[in-house]
Specification:
mainly alpha; GMP Synthetase, Chain A, domain 3; Rossmann fold; 2 domains; 3-stranded mixed β-sheet; two-stranded parallel ribbon; about 10% strand
């Protein structure tokens, strides 16, 4: 009984601490396996999730431990779920993200969005150098209009910028299939601008890009 109370309290704290998308990505898939000898064994399906749990959620595990067990409970993370282990039931009424969105224009076929389907948050490799970029990208995927608008991600080649931008677009389309999303490399965007300028069609250029719900460059 205490394990269920302990885990539910952790998730309540996590909902207050994390954005909706971060909660869905880092907290929802996690499972409490057991609490034994002042250690909470927590299953994480991806090893890269441990960094966020250690840096952003460890203190709430300790706080929940004092509240429920009246002692300090330290986390131990495992990445292979033991068989025949029933995790505590969770009273989470907000496990599914909700969006209030009504498209004003026809949708863009996925083949014309410029996105690559293989790039998602699930297969992005997270490290010490990009944890905040991932958090910001997740926040944008949760709220198109209000969070980090615009979002600027800077870094050298091969660090995952393209992957993150595609992941944002794919996550938005997963939750809002009618959203008008466009991913375009900076060089292609400039070339498109210059071509419209040469043809004297700047109004068409403006209309095209202003009609988008999400522009990823």
């Amino acid at each position: 009984m205490k394990e269920k109370q302990f885990w539910n309290r952790i998730l309540e704290f996590a909902q207050e601490r994390l954005t909706r998308s971060m909660y869905d990505f880092y907290a929802t898939p996690a499972e409490l396996i057991k609490v034994e000898e002042n250690t909470a064994t927590i299953f994480l399906p991806r090893s890269e999730m441990e960094m966020v749990w250690e840096k952003q959620l460890k203190d709430i595990i300790i706080a929940a431990g004092f509240e429920i067990y009246d002692s300090e409970i330290k986390p131990h993370y495992i990445f292979t779920k033991p068989q025949s282990t029933e995790s505590p039931q969770v009273n989470d009424t907000n496990s599914v993200s909700t969006y209030d969105y009504t498209p004003a224009l026809p949708t863009i076929p996925y083949s014309e969005t410029g996105l690559k389907e293989k790039y998602t948050f699930d297969n992005f490799i997270q490290g010490d150098g990009n944890v905040w970029a991932v958090s910001a990208a997740l926040a944008v995927s949760e709220d198109l209009a209000l969070t980090y608008n615009p979002l600027f991600i800077y870094g050298g080649p091969g660090l995952g910028k393209t992957h993150l931008l595609n992941a944002i677009g794919n996550e938005i389309l997963k939750n809002i299939p009618d959203a008008r999303v466009k991913y375009i490399p900076a060089e292609s965007f400039i070339n498109d601008f210059l071509e419209h300028l040469r043809l004297g069609e700047m109004e068409k250029f403006k209309k095209t890009y202003r009609s988008l719900d999400l522009l990823l460059i």
